[in-house]
Amino acid sequence: MKPTVLLTNDDGVSSAGIWAAYSALSEIADVTVVAPSTQQSAVGRSISIFEPIRIHKVNINGSLAYAVDGKPTDAVIIGLYALRLKPDLVVSGINIGENLSFESIMTSGTVGAALEASNQGTPAVAFSLQVNDQGMKFDDPRSALLEDDSIGHIVTDVCTRIFDQGFPEHCNVLNVNIPSEIHGGYEVTRLAHKLFHTGVEERFDPRGRPYYWIDGPIVEDAEEGTDVHAVREGRISITPVTLDCTAPAAFDGVRRQFRS
């Protein structure tokens, strides 16, 4: 029997990215799509606890999917507990836009869905695709970048290795980032510190009242060994991520500071 996959994302159930992943994964697994009904980028691991969640069966590209009126994390929880799926693996993506660095994965809905799956006991992989123009993230997500067969092949290859060899020990999620132009193979990386130089742009509405856009240019590069550097060099970054945010290196200093 084929392994089973719950496939989700944060770009919405109609995104080309999720259906590129579906096409690739269907060659090796039985895949069920459970994803947000609308764009939900940058919502992290937020959960809808103050409003009801509705799900709708939809037919996209001739395949059944479940559209969830909620966040990526909601979609995972609905898939596991309302639809009673018991997947061997949760796959989140393919996200249109890279998810690199501490900064990005803490807010990423794509990575957030994978973290939630792992927290609920199912191993998970998040896939993201670099875009050279950040505006592409918010355009029609039927990105021409996904027409490259190598993108789907990477999804198939990563998941096949997991099915054949088991999920890697000592991590909860694999965060995979694919460069827009691939010039190398896989590189196991650590998270860089930042992906963007954060800024705020002030504008004024027609009545003269200020409003703000959070923006800022993307970081050009980071130190060797990081996910940002690997992708900038054209290599496929695989970062093992853990749910445990404890900082053991700080224990001694904190103990000294709070000694009874």
Unreliable stretches (pLDDT < 50, length at least 5) are: none
Rounded to an integer in angstroms, the radius of gyration calculated over CA atoms is: 19 Å
Gap between N and C termini, in Å? 58 Å
Beta strands, count: 11
What composes the largest sheet? 9 strands, mixed
Q: Approximately how much helix is present in the residues?
A: 25-40%
Category from helices, strands and their pairing:
alpha/beta
Number of helices, counting only DSSP H or I runs of 4 residues or more: 7
Rough shape? globular
Measured by DSSP, the beta-strand proportion falls in: 25-35%
Q: What can you tell me about this protein's structure?
A:
With 260 residues, this protein is of the alpha/beta class. It has helices spanning 16-25, 72-82, 101-107, 109-119, 149-165, 227-232, 251-257, and strands at residues 4-8, 30-36, 55-60, 63-68, 89-96, 124-129, 173-178, 186-188, 199-204, 210-215, 236-241. The strands form 2 sheets. A 9-stranded mixed beta sheet has the order 3-4-2-1-5-6-7-11-8, sandwiched between helices. The protein has a two-stranded antiparallel sheet with strand order 9-10. α1 (16-25) packs across α5 and α2 (72-82) packs parallel to α4 (109-119). The radius of gyration is 19 Å and the shape is globular. The mean pLDDT is 92.
